[in-house]
Write a structure and sequence with these properties.
Immunoglobulin-like; five-stranded antiparallel β-sheet; globular
């Protein structure tokens, strides 16, 4: 399956995903291109962002990457922040992984 590329230098694999899948999110957006020393993935499920968490991403060349389990059947929403508390939230729209 080919990864889904989103605006802002984000890719998601696999997409769509199913509950129980491992999903890899790769980030090479605004924060990565501004020289962030650490990037965190901020995630939550459904319209109310249930099970919110900050997840430390790993530097992989010019990208930041993290593989996470899909624990709920609701869509996964996410955005990014760096260690200086700068955010990349896709111009207020965040990113969403469709969960089937």
């Amino acid at each position: 399956m080919i990864s889904k590329h989103e605006p802002g230098g984000v890719s998601i694999f696999p997409s769509p995903a199913r509950r129980g899948d491992l999903v890899t999110i790769t980030y090479n957006g605004l924060l990565a291109n501004s020289g962030a020393d650490q990037v965190y993935l901020y995630t939550g499920y459904g319209p109310m962002w249930h099970d919110k968490q900050y997840i430390r991403m790993q530097k992989m060349g010019n990208n930041w990457e993290r593989t996470i389990p899909i624990n709920r059947g609701e869509n996964l929403h996410f955005c990014f922040k760096d260690s200086a508390n700068n955010w990349d939230n896709n111009n207020g729209h965040n990113w969403t992984v469709t969960i089937h």
